From TrEMBL, chains A, B:
The lineage of its organism: Bacteria, Pseudomonadati, Pseudomonadota, Alphaproteobacteria, Geminicoccales. PANTHER family: GROUP II PYRIDOXAL-5-PHOSPHATE DECARBOXYLASE, MIP05841P. This is Pyridoxal-dependent decarboxylase. It comes from the Bacteria. PROSITE patterns: DDC_GAD_HDC_YDC. It comes from Benzoatithermus flavus. It holds the Pfam family Pyridoxal_deC.
Length: 489, 489
């Protein structure tokens, strides 16, 4: 028996004082890491010895106790993080988290609430977060919502509602196997892959998602959208939804939501807005006008774990018409019978609005974040990221060895090192190698993407800890490493 | 500016010592609740004043700081939990959580890893948890898996793989809109509603999920399954999968997995096993033989947050054929390009095996739980629940005022108060009222279900804190409250 074992057979610690001391030490350890975040490398590769230690096939027959488990965590896991809590993490679109959110996760874990339904305070917290969210985006009072893992699932739920609302017949009962409905949807070529994945999963098929061309600012070409819908109608398809993007993953471009919304209403198409991170720009007074039209969304997906820095994972879907939302997912078998009162009350239950019946208390970390910081302070961090991205774009533009590959629309800077002597392929390879070098040397962590067939170094400022000294270090790192590599060619 | 504001504009606390003190106090507060769990009511209704305080429409423009947020949490939320951390919570199938899991949630929140992919220690932790899981159920070394919110999503993923594997044509590209594939699936009438929801979401349509009758032990009638498949083939349908249940939600019945598996292989049908909670009975040597055949699953879904008491939410899907799993979900656009080295390495990425691209470090609380307690101790808690359920069933059977409504197959006891003078409808109403009374008086929290058209009080022992004194209190509560109600009729 390990020392934690209790004679009563429960999984609670025998000695609460010892458990308290372990928790306090764990808290102190994490504070030490937060307080000195900039002093560590952004990232370091996971040593083979660590991989080997985490590669065992057999599950642990006998426990080693909490203290030994925590030691193993500190030795094997904690030193090799994703890197996104570091000020010089600038890759993909990762939020950087907050100490407030981490504490909320402990409290949520301790309460261990199941938000699938029933009557208890946690469901009221999630409802409050959803109300706050719909207010933020200007959706009407009756709009419903659900917290989910992220925008991918939120988009899946939004498009399931669109299918329910627009598909002829009873799609839940008959499926799409019954007849040739030939539903078609529309999004831009710069849209996120999760839209394609949702079409696949829903049985719509990705060939029925039309990828509309973009304009010079990489926004959906609304004229081309109109033509595509008209052509499909003429060909006997059944256009049913448009997915607009508020902040594309490549460059942060924001589609013309007002124009697309107008077209959708006119054509009786469902408007889903993928606002994964860009939607939160509504918190910045100077940026909010660029999101005009977002309030017309029939469904809207966004993340709290990106630009609001709630710890992973936490996303949200909002649905304008609560009735359609519930009609898409509600199913209450006997064992989930609703009660007028008691714990089985609390109708409607959240499981009637999505896929999961067991749902953690994800809402608490969002509630803590919004309440502790307030929209103003969270918005200031977003504004600072955008201002710093513009500043970085200017530094790139004025540096002869670098070139900007796309306009800085929001918070994303796509650039690269250039050298007229190198072939396009060699230049792509060199820039890709520089990014891997930056990671491996722990200097900075941008990611890469392709723009117009060229590999771009992509710096996404979605990090409340980043300041201009970090961006200067990124550019200096790129130039130094690129020169070093170029010299060996 | 709130007192937490930092002049540097980050969301980190200005004063780390103050933050440390807040965290330590929060830890102490939760320990106090755990250590005195039995002394509180199981549940109490959420007062109107609390609902009103959580009903504000407008998001907080200005933050109130962490300390005030925590006070509001302690006042409004903490006193009104789901109740499943209490020893006399016996409703639905809820795990009761552990202090170890809560601490792991804090650590995961602090690391803030995104497990969508890339190369960092957390992805190796999730891989280890998946390897441990496949070993537990006897799936082969090549089997893949993914941690998800729960069995509902796990079943959706499993059935998406089944559709990919068995549907003629390229279902991701064409969808089900192309032609009359008429795929049909099979599960028992006692199966969980999540199977129906998965059929709906995947565009298969719930009318193409055949609900096979059950035998006297409420297990799928394998003969009836065979007949249903043959009849569908004869009628031009395309049978593609069977969903067997290891532990039904109503009574804990376990389908004959070996016989169903044999039939599936013979007929080239995909076998998905919904092992949401019952699958974990493999940890109990006396129960494991009843799960024989589970190792034949093509996909298997189960939860860590139920009988392993990992905090909500944490489920898992395992897929026998990694190639099919990846072929069902993989999509790597330019902005997710794989790298040979650096942070963008770490192939394959978890986002290629499921719906979500942003994925929290759910694996850590599972890893902590398995490693700290070990399978033996977790299995003992499960064994104790089953033994106590049998004991409770015997107490019901020997009590003239009560009747047992189904065999105690595993850990679930369905019973009710009886009174020959009352009509069936009045008896149903009385037993439902007794359950709500039990909740409202904070005595115990069973749930209800319907069996053979009769309302059952349903006690599910999925709680490591429950002992026989709690079960005796449940029975005493039922009898006292039922007599009181009957006296007023």
């Amino acid at each position: 028996m390990s020392s934690d074992d209790r004679p009563d057979g429960t999984l609670d610690p025998e000695d609460w004082e010892a458990f308290r001391a372990i928790c306090h030490r764990a808290v102190d350890r994490m504070i030490e890491r937060w307080a000195h975040a900039r002093e560590r490398p952004v990232w370091q590769s996971v040593p083979d010895a660590v991989k080997d230690a985490l590669a065992g096939e057999g599950p642990p027959e006998r426990g080693i106790g909490l203290e030994a488990t925590l030691r193993r965590f500190e030795e094997l896991i904690l030193p090799y993080p994703t890197g996104n809590t570091h000020p010089r993490f600038l890759g993909w679109v990762h939020g950087s988290g907050t100490p407030v959110g981490a504490l909320a996760e402990f409290l949520a874990g301790a309460m261990n609430a199941n938000l699938g339904g029933r009557e208890h305070a946690p469901v009221h917290v999630e409802r409050q977060v959803i109300r706050w969210s719909r207010t933020l985006f200007g959706l009407p009072e009756g709009a419903s919502g659900l917290l989910v893992g992220g925008t991918s699932t939120a988009t899946l739920i939004g498009l399931a509602c669109a299918r329910e609302a627009k598909c002829p017949g009873d799609v839940r009962r008959e499926g799409l196997q019954g007849g040739p409905a030939r539903l078609t949807g529309y999004t831009s070529r710069e849209a996120h892959g999760s839209v394609t994945k949702a079409f696949e999963l829903l049985g719509l098929g990705r060939e029925h998602l039309r990828l509309v061309p973009v304009d010079a600012e990489l926004r959906m070409d609304v004229r081309a959208l109109q033509e595509a819908v008209a052509a499909d109608r003429a060909a006997g398809f059944h256009p049913f939804c448009v997915v607009a993007t508020a902040g594309t993953v490549n460059t942060g471009a924001i589609d013309d939501l007002a124009a697309i919304g107008h077209f959708c209403r006119e054509q009786s198409l469902w408007l889903h807005v993928d606002a994964a991170f860009g939607g939160l720009a509504v918190l910045v007074p100077e940026l909010a006008p660029r999101l005009a039209g977002i309030e017309q969304a029939d469904s809207l997906a966004f993340d709290f774990h990106k630009w609001l820095h709630v710890p992973y994972d936490a996303g949200c879907v909002l649905i304008r018409d609560e009735g359609i939302h519930r009609a898409t997912f509600a199913l209450r078998p006997d064992y989930l019978a609703a009660a007028e009162r008691g714990l089985a009350g609390g109708n409607p239950w959240f499981c009637e609005y999505g896929i999961d019946l067991s749902r953690g208390f994800r809402a608490l970390k969002v509630w803590f974040t919004l309440l502790a910081y307030g929209l103003d302070r969270l918005g200031e961090a977003i504004a600072r990221n955008c201002a710093d991205a513009a500043w970085l774009g200017e530094r790139v533009a004025e540096t002869p060895e670098l070139e900007l590959l796309a306009p800085v629309a929001l918070n994303i800077v796509c650039f690269r090192w250039r050298d007229g002597r190198l072939s396009p392929a060699a230049l792509d390879a060199l820039n890709a190698a520089v990014v891997a070098d930056l990671h491996e040397e722990g200097i900075a962590a941008p990611s890469t993407t392709q723009l117009d067939g060229r590999l771009a170094i992509r710096a996404c400022l979605c990090n409340h800890r980043t300041d201009r000294s970090d961006l200067a270090a990124l550019l200096e790192g790129v130039i130094t490493l690129a020169r070093r590599r170029a010299a060996t060619l």
